Amino acid sequence: MKKFILPAVVLLMGAGAALATNSSKSARLVETGYRFDPSAAIKCIATPQTCQPSGVAVCTWNDGTTNHNLSRKVNDTMCGVQLFKP
Questions:
Q1: I want to staple 36 with a disulfide (CB 3.0 to 4.6 A). Which of 5, 47, 65, 79 is the partner?
Q2: Going along the chain, which residue ranges are E strands?
Q3: 23 lies in a domain?
Q4: Tally of domains within the chain
Q5: Residue among 24, 64, 25, 27 at smallest CA distance from 48
Q6: What are 12-41's pLDDT values in tens digits?
Q7: Could you read off the pLDDT of 35-78 as tens digits, one per residue?
């Protein structure tokens, strides 16, 4: 009986660790969307909208008057890769 318990415990711990790692990776796929404003001093501006790097529908945010397509921030003066709705 003891010979069976130790391998079973090790197997269950490994499976649990694999699931925990996988769930933490999927949580990181959601990120803040940034809009580009060419007239502002800081051109890549954060929005409250969360987006993801892959998908079908483009991630957008409305500031009350205009819909903005959201991207990933490269630096203060440049936005990069297009983001998608989660």
A1: 79
A2: 31-36, 44-51, 60-62, 67-69, 71-75, 78-82
A3: no
A4: 1
A5: 64
A6: 566 555 555 555 455 558 999 999 999 999
A7: 999 999 999 999 999 999 999 999 999 999 999 999 999 999 99
